[in-house]
TrEMBL record, chain B:
It comes from Mesorhizobium retamae. The keyword Signal applies. This is Sugar ABC transporter substrate-binding protein. The keyword Signal applies. Pfam families: Peripla_BP_4. Keywords: Signal. Residues 46-300 form the Periplasmic binding protein domain. Residues 1-25 form the signal peptide. It is found in: Cell envelope. Belongs to the bacterial solute-binding protein 2 family.
Length: 332, 337
């Protein structure tokens, strides 16, 4: 099944996968909101939806990449905030900001490398390894930076362009998300390395027995996801002129994981791709946007979000019941 | 002869000097200082904040540490870093240690309510700073949040009522809905809304003190209400996100953004960058000094039973815009040390 979403039931000749269920719910919600809310269908609002999920989506592409290889990366938000905060901190000594950003990217890559080694070589289960590393990364950052909120130096032209610029009317943040997603899709589908990631995720032991370099593959995956997390942090800094390290304490990392699972990438690995991530991201985007327009309270927003997400998973479970054939070892 | 005269001169000089020294010692023993030093020396104060990563907290602690070092009491900060459960543990630990005073910044009105009662019952005095609990204790030093709500919505009322207003639509970007600041500001906001019925509150959602969340809400609301007139928030470091969304929409001249803040230089920068229009500055260093006065009062009166007298001190609130975003309205942490 490599490269496709979870196997699905059939209605007529159409294969119903979880991805399709999510897309269907998105379409229904979009139609309902368009019919009932003023300006929902406007070009500006559609762009706002995309812009508001660009960070979530970028992170989810990185997470999806890891989950396909049967891993999980809970360090992403920590790497994002600490990597960018480190860049800003370095630039506060008078170092050129662009150079400082390169330093931050190197730090992020180094953390990714360490995580990868812990998972691939030390063979610590990724959920525990990344949970512990996330906490250490954030904790170290918290000691070094003193403040939670760090502001990028003003008047950095390229950073302003990331925040406010647009290409053919599409905001840069959305363009960057699209680029990360497109590169990842190409990487997963068209390169040999991408196929090896699926093979490793589908059955790590078999992959290793057949002579695939599973350890270097896993290490590389974590380095790439750390760099994607750093990119998401740069998008955020461009958008709001600074980075708030308290994001680590928020539910963002679970939202990211949710988008990935919701879109149909099974936690058991070896399945799904970037398309699934985009499906999940767009559903969350439409839902949040509609509820913000409706001025629902925070509590009811969370409630409605959970109910819709749970029903997407439930519908999938009904259409595609798990059995011995479809379930894999290692499925969480 | 020369030796004898010299010796005499030296003796005279020494006598005079000695006398002078004695006189100085008597005259400059500042009234009550010795007793004050005696009262606060070696006393133990524990501070349980929401998070020390916030500018206001850093200002307070810098001020208190200066007092503690100068007058010989100890100040320990138990930082739960925004985690309520860790905060409860920190409070329980602090109560078990029986310090002379606990200073607390409440994450919301309920979480520590019972613990604060417990602390007072076991004889520990409690000073609450800026964020109150449902339990009133010996002292509260911080903002008059109802007044803050009135001031901020009042500022929007100035811009968004009358014939020249672009519209009467305003937004309230709340913080955390169960937080004291949020609850009381809402009371003040409602008063202004009642007095100005034409004002239309089109969105009322918490941004959770996060700039990106504030940006997302503002971006969506601006699509829905392109003629939006004003936004009010709860913390300058979060509302920069709202400012970024307004700037991205090119509506900086149309939308007035009002918020409050500790008065740090970053807030002034945000005003200068055009991300914010008005900050009601509650000057955290001055708040810290008022609290330090309360610390010394509570430590000086050990005979007073915990919770027997309850006092409230509201700090100053200064309206800061681009004309006065200078000097003491824009402190840096290094200036306070």
């Amino acid at each position: 099944m490599a490269g496709r979403g979870k196997p699905g039931g059939r209605i007529g000749s159409v294969q119903i996968s979880q991805e399709l269920v999510v897309i269907a719910i998105s379409v229904i919600l979009f139609a309902v909101f368009s019919a009932t809310l003023n300006n929902f269908l406007s070009q500006g609002n559609v762009i706002a939806i995309l812009k508001n999920v660009s960070i979530l989506g970028t992170l989810a592409v990185g997470m999806g990449f890891i989950v396909v290889g049967r891993g999980i990366d809970l360090t992403m938000v920590a790497v994002m905030v600490v990597g960018v905060a480190f860049s800003i901190w370095v630039s506060s000594w008078g170092v050129d900001f662009t150079l400082a950003v390169i330093c931050g990217a190197l730090l992020a890559a180094a953390i990714g490398l360490f995580t990868g080694i812990m998972v691939a070589v030390a063979e610590i289960p990724p959920i525990f390894a990344t949970l512990a590393i996330a906490s250490s990364v954030y904790g170290s950052g918290r000691i070094v930076f003193a403040s939670d909120v760090l502001y990028a130096p003003p008047n950095i032209a390229w950073l302003k362009f990331v925040g406010n610029g647009s290409v053919f009317g599409i905001p840069m943040s959305v363009v960057m998300f699209a680029c990360v997603a497109a590169l990842m899709a190409f990487f997963l589908r068209k390169t040999r390395f991408g196929r090896l990631v699926y093979a490793t995720g589908d059955n790590p032991n078999a992959a290793r027995t057949t002579g695939l370099p599973t350890r270097p593959i896993i290490v590389t995956q974590y380095v790439i996801s750390a760099l994607i997390a750093f990119t998401a942090g740069i998008i955020m800094t461009g958008l709001v002129t600074g980075i708030d390290t308290r994001l680590y304490n928020s539910s963002l990392i679970y939202d990211v994981l949710l988008v990935v699972v919701l879109g149909g990438i099974g936690l058991s690995g070896g399945q799904g791709g970037v398309r699934n991530v985009i499906a999940g991201t767009i559903l969350v985007g439409i839902l949040t946007n509609g509820m913000t327009i409706l001025n629902f309270s925070y509590t009811s927003q969370n409630l409605i979000k959970s109910v819709i997400l749970l029903s997407a998973l439930a519908i999938d479970a009904i259409i595609n019941p798990r059995d011995e054939q479809t379930s894999q070892s290692g499925d969480i | 002869m020369l030796f004898k005269n010299g010796l005499l001169a030296c003796l005279t000089a020494l006598t005079l000097l000695g006398g002078a020294k004695l006189a100085t010692a008597q005259e400059t023993d500042q009234v009550g200082r010795a007793a004050y030093l005696e009262a606060v020396k070696g006393k133990k104060v524990i501070f349980v904040p929401i998070s020390q990563g916030m500018d206001l907290n850093q200002a307070w602690v810098t001020v208190w540490q200066r007092h503690a070092a100068r007058y010989g009491f100890t100040l320990e900060v138990r930082d739960p870093n925004g985690d309520t459960n860790a905060g409860i543990r920190a409070m329980q630990g602090a109560i078990a240690e029986k310090p002379d005073l606990i200073i607390v910044q409440n994450p919301d009105v309920q979480t520590y309510a019972r613990l604060l009662k417990q602390a007072q019952a076991s004889g520990i005095k409690v000073l609450q700073v800026n964020m109150q609990s449902a339990t009133q204790t010996d002292s509260y030093v911080g903002n008059d949040w109802i007044e803050m709500g009135r001031l901020e919505m009042g500022e929007l009322a100035k811009h968004c009522t009358g014939p020249n207003a672009v519209s009467h639509k305003v937004v309230w970007l709340a913080g955390v809905q169960t937080g004291a600041a949020n609850i009381y500001m809402r009371t003040g906001i409602d008063e202004v809304l009642k007095a100005n019925p034409e004002l239309q509150l089109v969105s009322d959602q918490p941004a959770d003190y996060m700039s990106e969340k504030a940006r997302q809400i503002t971006e969506t609301v601006l699509q829905q209400h392109p003629d939006l007139c004003g936004i009010m928030g709860i913390w300058d470091n979060a509302e920069v996100g709202a400012g970024a969304a307004v700037a991205a929409a090119g509506k900086q001249d149309q939308v007035t953004i009002v918020t409050n803040g500790a008065g740090s230089a970053t807030g002034c920068e945000s005003i200068k960058n055009g991300l914010l229009d008005v900050i009601f500055n509650f000057n955290a260093p001055i708040q810290g000094e008022i609290a330090a006065q309360q610390i010394s009062e509570l430590l000086q009166r050990p005979e007073r039973q915990a919770g027997s007298e309850k006092t409230i001190f509201f700090g100053p609130i200064t309206r800061v815009d681009k004309d006065n975003a200078v000097g003491r309205n824009c402190w840096k942490l290094d200036d306070l040390k």
